[in-house]
Design a protein that fits this description.
InterPro entries: IsoCit/isopropylmalate_DH_CS, IsoPropMal-DH-like_dom, Isopropylmalate_DH
Main location: cytoplasm
Binding site for NAD(+): 283-295
Distance between the termini: 20 Å
Radius of gyration: 20 Å
Shape: globular
Strand order of the largest sheet: 2-1-3-12-11-4-5-10-8-9
Bound molecules: nicotinamide-adenine-dinucleotide, 3-isopropylmalic acid, manganese (II) ion
Largest sheet: 10 strands, mixed
Pathway: Amino-acid biosynthesis; L-leucine biosynthesis; L-leucine from 3-methyl-2-oxobutanoate: step 3/4
Oligomer: single chain
CATH superfamily of the largest domain: Isopropylmalate Dehydrogenase
Strand content: 15-25%
CATH architecture of the largest domain: 3-Layer(aba) Sandwich
Structural class: alpha/beta
Number of domains: 2
CATH topology of the largest domain: Isopropylmalate Dehydrogenase
Catalytic activity: (2R,3S)-3-isopropylmalate + NAD(+) = 4-methyl-2-oxopentanoate + CO2 + NADH
Helix content: 40-55%
Length: 362
Amino acid sequence: MNYKIALIKGDGIGPEVVNEAVGVLEAVGEKFGHTFEYVDVLLGGCATDAVGKSYPDDTAEKCRTCDAVLLGAVGGPKWGSDKPAEQRPETALLAIRRDLGLYANLRPAVLRPAMADACPLKKETAEKGIDLMMVRELTGGVYFGKRDRYQTPDRGVECTDLMAYSEQEIERIGRRAFEMARLRGKKLASVDKANVLETSRLWREVMHRLAGEYPDVAYSDVLVDNCAMQLVRDPSQFDVVVTENMFGDILSDEASMITGSIGLLPSASIGDTAPGLYEPIHGSAPDIAGQDKANPIATILSVAMMMRYSFQRPGEAAAIERAVDAVLAEGWRTADIAGPGVTPIGTRRMGELIRGRIEAMA
Ligand code: NAD
Ligand code: IPM
Ligand code: MN
């Protein structure tokens, strides 16, 4: 097959990690007889520098002509919160998610076998394993609500960010999560703050209605503060976790760290139509950008998710995951996961080793 892929390299370590993931795609293409065509698409701080705005007019359209989108990361101190919205990289990221209808963000947190020693939890907790799928709602909630900033007569400036959810938005992400649970361990935890928020009470109502349609899935409600704690106490209790946009953002960074590093966790953002967008959950890591220090594994595993969810190629996805596990099992580590006494390797070397593993597969 020939696949056309939009590459949004972005800012900071974005181009470095995307380059390694593209190398892996090429190795997969060789091995399995596919060809990939790439279209470079501008989005983020680099777009602001090039054309004056972070989300150029033709960006979404260019992505729509492709079968999938691979994104590195966007953002950086150069385009901070003091800049107008249209120049900020994060505004563009939200806009592309909305414009491509990518309401479901799948963020798997897996403690890979070779990484058990990198888990910061108690040894006996780590030994129970971590293999959960966070399903984060991605195009609603406080991220997309009306914002306001105004002067009050007596309390200075006041700001508001509206958190809104409709039944329809909750139901479609809920269905995705129940379906995902069916394909996995048949357990679903829905995370909310129904003891305080009206949006969460509606969330819970809709989830309970759906739970009736999926009697084979063991369903539970978990309050978000408790979930944050349970992830550290005993993450092995979770299979699929579904939650709203901002809770999912925060909890997935937490989930990444208990599996060793944020540099390891991939994600898939999907909607009801192609293309899906694949990106690591980490950001542009300005502190290590341009130094060949970033861990490319999260982006490489995002390509595996692309194979699985956009192209229905589970064999190719598994080959990439096996290659990553094999290289980790041999003890190769980038700086973020190198324990004491381990000499880290760079971004490019890690990519090269993973490609080599794919090439060597029978
Ligand atoms: P970050 O994820 O970029 O970095 C947090 C820490 O993790 C840093 O110390 C960084 O060096 C480290 N880190 C991240 N990815 C790594 C990797 N692959 N290998 C090794 N170490 C890694 O988060 P931040 O510093 O809060 O944000 C920096 C910028 O990135 C901000 O502008 C933010 O808005 C943006 N951001 C973008 C995305 C995205 O594009 N999807 C996601 C998160 C943050
Ligand atoms: C992520 C990031 C983004 C988010 C930011 C950069 C807008 O943190 O993809 O997790 O909050 O969704
Ligand atoms: Mn985030």
